[in-house]
Amino acid sequence: MSTDMKVNVDKEAIVAQLLEKVNASPFLLVIDYAGVSVPEFTKLRAELAATGARCTVAKNSFMVKAIAEAGLPDISSSLKGQTAYVTGDKDVCAAAKVLNAFIKASKKGAYKVGILDGAELTPDRIRALGELPSREVLLATLLGTINGAGAALARVIQAFVDKQGES
């Protein structure tokens, strides 16, 4: 096997791994990690892992190929410089929340672009996802709203019944 063929096989294997990650995730967040130290990056990866997200560093050209093969929007114009890719199993908001905290605390790194359910996200939209309350808080709010409406309906019915009893 010639060296060129081995290099092509290696590149194809890397692109295939990236494609697998992209296809398995409902989101892809792209960050610039220039100036981030190895210990900071290691800590960021651990915090992302706690939310079910993974941070991958790959050649931008490889990721462009994987994204194209996945049929996702062309974000190649944003893939320049030191770029890290965050994917996960489910909760994009939790991953964005970790990234928001990291960027704010370290004053390093920045959002470049993202993809959520096949739609391109701007840096501001990614930041906004990270500012949303947690899933548990949103569910509790929803349940409180549903419970409040049910309680109000019960009071109206009870008042009607009470009024009918007075007649």
Shape: elongated
Beta-strand fraction estimate: 15-25%
Number of strands: 5
The largest β sheet comes out as: 5 strands, antiparallel
Low-confidence residue ranges: none
Going by CATH, the homologous superfamily of the largest domain would be Ribosomal protein L10, N-terminal RNA-binding domain
Rg measurement, Å:
23 Å
Q: Could you name the CATH class of the largest domain? A: Alpha Beta
Estimate nothing, just give the exact number of structural domains: 2
What name is given to the CATH topology of the largest domain? Alpha-Beta Plaits
Helix segment tally = 6
User: Could you give the order of the helices and strands?
Assistant: HEHEHEHEEHH
Percent of residues in helices: 55-70%
CA distance, first residue to last residue: 97 Å
Q: How would you explain this protein's 3D organization?
A:
By secondary structure, the protein is an alpha+beta fold. The chain has 2 domains: 3-132, Alpha-Beta Plaits, CATH 3.30.70; 133-167. Helix content is 61%, strand content 16%. The chain is built from 6 helices and 5 strands; from the N terminus they run H-E-H-E-H-E-H-E-E-H-H. It has helices at 3-24, 38-50, 60-70, 92-106, 123-131, 135-166; strands at 27-32, 53-57, 83-88, 110-116, 119-121. A 5-stranded antiparallel beta sheet has the order 2-3-1-4-5, sandwiched between helices. Strand 4 (110-116) and strand 5 (119-121) form a beta hairpin. Helix 1 (3-24) crosses helix 3, helix 2 runs antiparallel to helix 4 (92-106) and helix 4 crosses helix 5 (123-131). The longest helix has 32 residues, at 135-166. The model has no long low-confidence stretch (mean pLDDT 87).
